[in-house]
Amino acid sequence: MLAFRVDDMTCGHCASTMSKAVRAIDADARVEIDLAQQVVRIDATNKGNGELGKAIAEAGYTPVPVELRPSATAAVPRAGGCCCGSDGSGCRA
Q: I want to staple 82 with a disulfide (CB 3.0 to 4.6 A). Which of 3, 12, 68, 88 is the partner?
């Protein structure tokens, strides 16, 4: 899985634009967007970091490749709350 930190990604529109840019290069890629952390994770099927990073840059953003730690992709419940980080009062899980 590839990952990029994109500090100029600020909203859902940004996330959608980047997802479309990546899928234009790799139609079968799985794209995960973490707006809070400003990280884009891509499970690419046939393209490398360079091509996908270039697609994000051409969409108007500044991707910086980052290394994922194994725990960075797993949702871990926080003490006293939900896996999403809320206090759990609004969650159905």
A: 88
Strand order in 30-34's β-sheet?
Answer: 30-34, 39-43, 2-6, 63-65
51 Cβ contact partners less than 8 Å away, ≥ 6 residues apart: 25, 26
Report the C-alpha gap between 39 and 50 in whole angstroms.
16
Answer whether residue 85 is part of any domain: no
Contacts of 54 (CB under 8 A, 6+ apart): none
Domain that residue 24 falls in: 2-73
Segment 21-76, tens digit of pLDDT = 999 999 999 999 999 999 999 999 877 778 999 999 999 999 999 987 765 444 44
Q: pTM here?
A: 0.69
Evaluate whether residue 92 is within a structural domain. Answer: no
